[in-house]
Amino acid sequence: TNKEVTFIISAQKIDQDFYLLSEEPYEVDLFKDFYIAPSLLSTLKTNNKAINVVGSVYAKENDLDNCLLLNTDKSVVEALNGNIFLVKGNTVKTPPLTDGCLKGVMRKQIIQILELMPELEIEEASISPFELQKADELFITNVITGIQPITKYRKKEYKNTVAKSVLQKLNVKVRLG
Known about the structure:
It is a single chain. The chain contains four helices and ten strands, in the order E-H-E-E-E-E-H-E-H-E-E-E-E-H. By secondary structure, the protein is α/β, with parallel strands linked by helices. The longest helix has 16 residues. The N and C termini lie far apart (41 Å). The model has no long low-confidence stretch (mean pLDDT 93).
């Protein structure tokens, strides 16, 4: 009735002071039942994440740890709970905001870290589903987990060398604050 902004904040303590890299198997697949609009509106974190909720149900029903979401152009945009990074050779690729991925805090930090790593080249460009099976490495980023390496997509298995290296630099950045 008055159009004033209201909000609720909920917080939980995280057990560790730095990010740990999980070595556990972590399998994903594409969620193709619904698509994200490739627009800047999709980059905002809101409570309207019905696709993520339905995708989580799909993942659970199919014994997956996560799913990768596509936009209406059929490009890989993000995971259910974070941004996606693809490593091929010395290039690390992540979708641009114009594809509709979440404008995540951790995404921005990881891009900044990668820009300072001379052995790697960071590229913000659309990711085709076909590139997933040709990649050397895939990982998901978010503020809670830091970096979550993907170990398997369909029949393809991945290593986590770049994820480990970036996570070390992320932990240094967090400590220096």
